[in-house]
Amino acid sequence: MKTGCFYQPFVSQLVFALAIIGLGLQTYPAFSADNSKGAYLSAQKPDGLASASTDVVDSEFFCTGSFAAATANSGTISSDTALFFARFTTNDWIGHLIARPISNGTNCGPVPLGSICSSAWDAGCKLTGGFCLEIGERVSKIEPNDRVIITRDEDNVPKAFRWNQLKDGGTQRASLDQSDNLGGKRLNYLRGVRDQELAKCKGGIFRNRKSVLGDIISSIPTYVGPPERFYFSKPEFTEGASYGTFKTDHKAREPMVYVGSNGGMLHGFKASDGGEKLAYVPTLVLEDLWQLTKADYSHRNYVDGPISENDVHYGRVWHSLLVSGLGTGGQGYLALDITNPAEFSEANAASIARWEFTDSDDVDLGYTFSKPLLVRLANGKWGVIVGNGLNATEADGNASSTGNGVIFILDAEDGSLIKKLDTKQGSADDPKGLSRPNGIIGTSAVDEDGDFIVDRLYAGDLFGNVWAFDLSNSNPSQWASAYGPANNPDPLFVAIADSVKQPITSDLKVKSHPSQDGFLVYFGTGQYLGKSDLTDQSQQTFYAIWDRMGNRSNSFTRSRLLEQTMTEHAITSTDLRGRIVSKKPIVWDDGSSSQDANEKLGWYIDLTKGERVHQAPILRDGRVIFVTVTPANDSCAGGGTSWLMEVAGANGGRLDESVFDFNKDRFFNNRDMINAGDIDSDGHDDYIHGSGIQRKNGGILSRPVIINHPDGRTESKYITTSKGEVESILEDSGRNRHMPWREIR
What is the pTM of this model? Predict the structure, then answer.
């Protein structure tokens, strides 16, 4: 089997699929084991986006990969800490969800602390049965008739996903029937019945499968254990008084891992053994599920978008709610009540399936790549905040007339629209003059005063604008852009380099400014949306900008920001490269009317040409951690390269200590400093702490999962690889030396 083929998808969060890494399977201390005019994606018909996203993959069969980032059940290593990650193969489009324990030094043999142990289970095997290659033994399958699979009928009523539950003579049955009236058998095939597959020699005509679980590409596995938030009562947050009881009542809740697959379902698997407890078929994809049975099936995406979960309060009680986008699978979000997995049953479909919000509800909703924010709003309701995503102008019967970048604030209880925030920046404002639609993917909500209620919202769009919205009023009609009039809002900042606007395609992160006056907003620029992006050499940047709020300082340019610079260096006797970032001090603007040229409103680091940031940064212990990518022109030539970067959050400069174990001795000291040459011309080489690490020919990195070691000083960053594995990077956390800033949520 051919491995290491690199899929170049065509939308930003499918860019997690692009966040592939080719770090190989070696184990050692430092690393162990689309584009067309008028659209951001080539989608000239309703199914065009789905087909565009697999054009490159279809040309390279027998590829095995793991594109979505991993997740973990704990932030600190213990005896039961585990990673969960997805893998897929393209020769038959099957998926795997795999659990691997993390070594605490004793739980999986004589392997170092933080190492990744052998696989405990594979959910694809549990659904399929037989010999499981991942764990090296036979497993019993879940019988198709015993699976809990639910959907909504065409009257929007939650039902079991069974033939007798679909409306007789309705459109859902017709879509499954096609012209051969085999709809009932097709539905059973989708539930996991395999006797009608061609290879079974029983007269069947359906596609052969090696696994019942469909491929998992961009949907990131999401671990949900017992409730663990720290809500408590506040004057405007009275529901907090009952949260402790909710936690106690559900402290023994079955831990679950939720993930979407391109078998057309959002799945819930038990974290303990990978057994499926629930699957949900969104109505938006149901009409195309018949294609999965075609013997000449051409891959498409179904449930392939971002997932979020939170404990929310409505109907006078607390609930655990999960919301997922469809990614390239469609223009819609779904919400499930996952409070009690013990009560997951088809008979309880109505209490589990909460709502769907699609472009038929609002035409400005595009393909759903914005990670939902589940938050308490100032009007007393819990809400779900999402950007409108990509290609809302697609001619599918629900096309946006403006192509504006907008944000939807939905009622968490029923999905109804509470407020729509319109940037008024759309197709007519395309900086390339191609009438492409704008779109918002990345958002970040801020609770300014610690009362668990959102006061401010930040968002970035495809045209390089960073927006700030004031949501502090109890009346949603007053929610609007923090700058400019409501009918013609102004951005907080516009990312521009070399006179070219820089697209923002990932979440923004926010921290209090060091002065406690306003907020610093962190984000990277660049896109990985289509084939033309592979050769794009436009200047991209990582930014931190200051929103001073009360001073109403907005629309400043990069001339008001401090520039930090980078140099690259080979690490002697290793296959690593390091980056050194400058360390210029920052002088913050004091707000006086006379502007000093040295006073700044933030900082930035320009990346090398062709390099960009398409994944959200991580703010941790006073540091900013982000991953860059430089794509390769050839989709199967290693995918490209990445750097893992860590700089000081306050000024973007290098840190005062060694972060990376460049010499691979598992210690962090001056021996890890990088030889920068004779910088000061004193006849001696200068050694400087590194701020970035890259393995030669290492491929592309995903956003890491970070787990603390018991010593409180070291940590491991876990990243998925193009070979369908996860690997770890040992680092010095810097704890016990920094006073961490508080990340605003």
Answer: 0.91
